[in-house]
Amino acid sequence: MAAIHEAAALIRGGGIVAIPTETVYGLAADARDSAAVARIYAAKGRPSFNPLIVHVPDAAAAERIAVFDDDARALAAAFWPGPLTLVLPIRAGAGIASLATAGLDTVAVRVPAHRAMQALLAASAAPLAAPSANASNAISPTRAAHVAASLGASVPLIVDDGSTTAGVESTIVAGRTILRPGPVTAEMLREILPVAPGTSAHISAPGQLATHYAPRKPLRLDAVAADDDEWLIGFGSVAGDDMLSATGDMVEAAARLFDALHRADASDRSRIAVAPVPEQDIGAAINDRLRRAAAR
Ligand code: TXA
Ligand code: MG
């Protein structure tokens, strides 16, 4: 398929592509490339960074990025490929961009059962981070025309392979807890494991993380210079100990945000300060994360 070759070339170049899975159309990027992942958030106009699902071709590839226990292996054996997402500890050195997991130490991983997504995984040889391919707060797309209507010009390529079959987003399971109901039902899961619906320590409501990664140290916003014992994360003309984007590039700043916060936490300074970041475009998501981090 010519479209898959074009899509794989875009992915390898750090771009984004809309592609169907068996559930909904996803907006995919190389999960190891933080700038590419930032382009997903920018295109969706998300006001905050939700961790994304990482799609891989098979269970062996999933084991290279996540740490499986016996429960997870049993679910994977029963339902992959298919509309089940497992939240698991991230494997050290797996190379998944921290923006894809919103800085968490877990990763949501799934093996999709769709020829187009599987073909793109093979052709790009990359784990693909992909949320649903709709603008933030819009309805999930089940046809290429939905993607075009919702995201239009902000997506360079929509691979059209007809309507999706499952139509709702994948079931998400963490341990023995169903975080999001989906096509793999509780009854189906219970034939394998005694799962229960619920929330995890990280989640207050489906899709809503109560605590994304937040630094341990106090954080001050809109800083133009470092105070005593502060680690200053710069932006644009405000230089510091670290830099989100010297040129004021918002996508670059988003791509660097979580790594910069991790570095600040690990530094020898007791406090963190961050330069002002404009509220426009993906800056809204950057500032949302920073305000939450500062409020702790
Ligand atoms: O069917 C699907 O799952 C579709 C297709 C494209 O694969 N994708 C999808 O992605 O629905 P998205 O971003 O719309 O939903 C991902 C959900 C969010 O609710 C997010 O909070 C949760 O997965 N999630 C991702 N990583 C997580 C983590 N480490 N811990 C807990 N929840 C996580
Ligand atoms: Mg969604």
UniProtKB/TrEMBL annotation:
GO terms for cellular component: cytoplasm. InterPro entries: DHBP_synth_RibB-like_a/b_dom (IPR017945), Sua5-like_dom (IPR006070), Sua5/YwlC_C (IPR038385), Sua5_C (IPR005145), T(6)A37_SUA5 (IPR010923), TC-AMP_synthase_SUA5 (IPR050156). PROSITE patterns: YRDC. L-threonine binds at T23, H55, R110, A130, S170. Its main location: cytoplasm. It catalyses: L-threonine + hydrogencarbonate + ATP = L-threonylcarbamoyladenylate + diphosphate + H2O. Its EC number is 2.7.7.87. It is an enzyme of class 2 (transferase). It holds the Pfam family Sua5_yciO_yrdC. GO terms for molecular function: ATP binding; double-stranded RNA binding; L-threonylcarbamoyladenylate synthase; tRNA binding. Required for the formation of a threonylcarbamoyl group on adenosine at position 37 (t(6)A37) in tRNAs that read codons beginning with adenine. This is Threonylcarbamoyl-AMP synthase. It comes from Sphingomonas ginsenosidimutans.
